[in-house]
Predict the structure.
Amino acid sequence: MTSGLAAGRGRTVSIDVTASATPQDGFDDFRREWEAQVGEPWPLNRLDVTASSDFKVRFQAVAAVDVVIADAYSASYVGRTVPDHHETGRWVAVHRLRHGSWRFGRLDGRGEDLTFEAGTLIVRHDVPEFFEIPYGSAADLLFLPARAVAPLPDGKPIVGSADTAEVRVLMAHAQMIRETVCDLTPTGLWAARGALVELVRGAMRRELDDVEPLLAPALLRAAMEIADQHLTDPELTPTMLARKLNVSVRTLHRAFAAATAGEPVAAYIRRRRLEQARMELAAPRHRPGVSEVATRYQFADGSHFIRAFKAQYGQTPAEFARASSSLDRWLHPLR
């Protein structure tokens, strides 16, 4: 059977089996929904959860060409995969654990059981395995055809930190695909899929292709996310962002130039600091002073902050704060 995905169309997938009566019913419901919504080319092996106390999962995903990008939250369960498809190792699964922990074990008894905590990245083949997943575990999941990515050494899982620069860029790109998959043309979908495969390879090798233009949007998004988390940090510079993302400053500048109509990295940092400063000055209660905000967002001095703020918003910080205060009193006279 050829699915619509093979023709280059994306789709969204939503599966919620948190109300299932028994563990096996829960998985059977999940498998039916998986086959109905995802189907080819990702057949799902059976899971034996008869020893489990529960099987309840919320699964949100998009399918793009021949990859699946998902977010999964689960209640506690224990299970063993039971392969009922002739071909194994057809696809590679990438897991980034956000909460909880997962334990994997080999059904054939070879190798030791491995427990992975939050903050771990796991890349593995879809070989039969034993699973033990505690209550409240959550993970980002990617499923890709094995032929598209580099082979795993000896077929063994690759385990590493989910906080590397390569993983940040990978997950930023995966999130962009999730947000835009239904709007992408077939050509755009294939381009997004190609970039995702390259980023998975980079995460597996812990390196990025600095000259690959398809990766610029993902690199840009990852850089923006890091910058937004460090707006009050005096060390926030293009050099710091490039170091965290394991790319050159030149590559970072090139990504911003290609994806933001030419806004330089430093200009983005300055604009976001001004936006956050403006939000604080508009606070209805416990509004900070202009000098305090200028210091927090790393402006050299109050006059520098005032000039930058007026150039951006057409009024000084003090004028904006007074206007916000007057508007708040008018809207909430009894506060």
